[in-house]
Amino acid sequence: MDQTYADFRSRREATVWQRLNRTLRVLLVLAIWLVIVSLFVPPYKKLTQSRAEIDNLQQQVNEQQNLLAHQTREINLLKTDSTYLETVARDRLDLMKEGETIFRLEAPRAAKPKPGNSHR
Fold first, then answer.
1. What percent of the chain stands above pLDDT 70?
2. 82-93 vs 2-80: helix crossing angle, rounded to 10
């Protein structure tokens, strides 16, 4: 009887140590994984921030290129097309030909805030 009890006890102690070793290994792997993640997260955040900034700058470049193309086209029309030049000049100087009727459509103005509704 003493022999079976000792055998059971030694097996139980062995399994406790095996469990502790297994737990320690899992914790060690988890700690290594956390160190690796902590090393790679800041550069990844900086990379995504840089990509967003590049996208924003590319959009600004595209807008400027569109504006340049529009203004270049307008300059070419002003240099070469006398009808367009006449139309632009009459529009900017508010002139009209005889018998011509001009209709001007203005965009609605933004509503002014009331002076009594100030938020403090």
1. 80
2. 100
- Both tokens of 77, joined, read 């029309």
Tell me the pLDDT band of 12, cut-offs 50, 70 and 90: low
The string of DSSP letters for 58-115 reads HHHHHHHHHHHHHHHHHHHHHHH-HHHHHHHHHHHHT---TT-------PPPPPPPPT
Confidence tier at 31 by pLDDT (50, 70, 90): very high
Residues 6+ positions from 88 with CB-CB distance below 8 Å:
78
Instruction: Tell me the CA distances in angstroms from 12 to 18, 49, 55, one per residue in order.
Output: 10, 55, 62
pTM over 0.90: no
